Amino acid sequence: MATSKVERLVNLVIALLSTRGYITAEKIRSSVAGYSDSPSAEAFSRMFERDKNELRDLGIPLEVGRVSATDPAEGYRINRDAYALPPVGLTPDEAAAVAVATQLWESPELITATQGALLKLRAAGVEVDPDAPVAFASPAGVPGLRGSEDVLGILLSAIDSRQAVQFPHRPSRAEPYTTRTVEPWGVVTEKGRWYLVGHDRDREATRTFRLSRIGADVTPIGPPGAVTVPDGVDLRKIVAQTVTEWPGGGQARVWVADGRATALRRAGRSIGARELAGRSGEVIELDIASADQLARDIAGYGPDAVALEPQSLRDDVVARLRSHVEAGRS
């Protein structure tokens, strides 16, 4: 898969910050990830010119100079003194966001990619400064992401290339995996957990998936550029509405068949008889303590219990029932 422009620019900045001297364009082409994809020297030259201009437009002090006193070839580097930021004051929320970004940078995939880039520079004969402002550390683990680093890497790549993905998913650890096909819109965090938001082609609806419940076999499918993120979509709002616990006193309404779902019936309060799909029963009202547990309990009764309200609970129960049906067919 081709390297994205953003990733290529980051690789270039890392390389130019990590050397004492100037790096020639040819060594950049052979050593910095993203430039070897160029089909010809002319294509690389055009790409590199655009990237240099973009870095300068971003305010990055790119310098041009001779590689050495004995080598008149033109090379490039970033002026570290001019690149350094003045002291920055952050609010608590901004500091937390920076901390998460820093931890993500130290995830195994990114550490491997960065170290690989610098090893290529060394192999090309470029002197890499050991005091360069690019830190390397063994990852202590990103909160809420442990074990899902590979999944995150593939999803971010698919989001960047606007490509659909298929992956195994289960609503909870006790339930079987089913294959989902999703058009990914973005990945966000909520309450220390990581979530994928996108359009679920199987459900024909917007869905949120916790990364820890996605299996390792994530596969991009279809052509790049096929996914369109809706204008004005608020990923954080979608996740917050999906995963936030309903407040104490929140209630659900559930239909239960006569003579069935006894434990569920005892936990609730009857608010009237109702016939549903030709079966006699009643509607009960339940206090919501845990949305996840209640959805699991209702789904466990199959057709003898039907979630009516709220809609998010109903959707969760339906998704669980469908996953059981699909697992039985496989």
UniProtKB/TrEMBL annotation:
| Boundaries of every WYL domain copy | 151-214
One protein family per Pfam: WCX
**Matching InterPro entries:** CBASS_pafABC_assoc_protein, WCX_dom, WYL_dom
Q: What is this protein called?
A: Predicted DNA-binding transcriptional regulator YafY, contains an HTH and WYL domains
Q: Which PROSITE patterns match?
A: WYL
**WCX domain spans which residues?**
251-323
Q: Which UniProt keywords apply?
A: DNA-binding
The molecular function terms in GO held by this entry are:
DNA binding
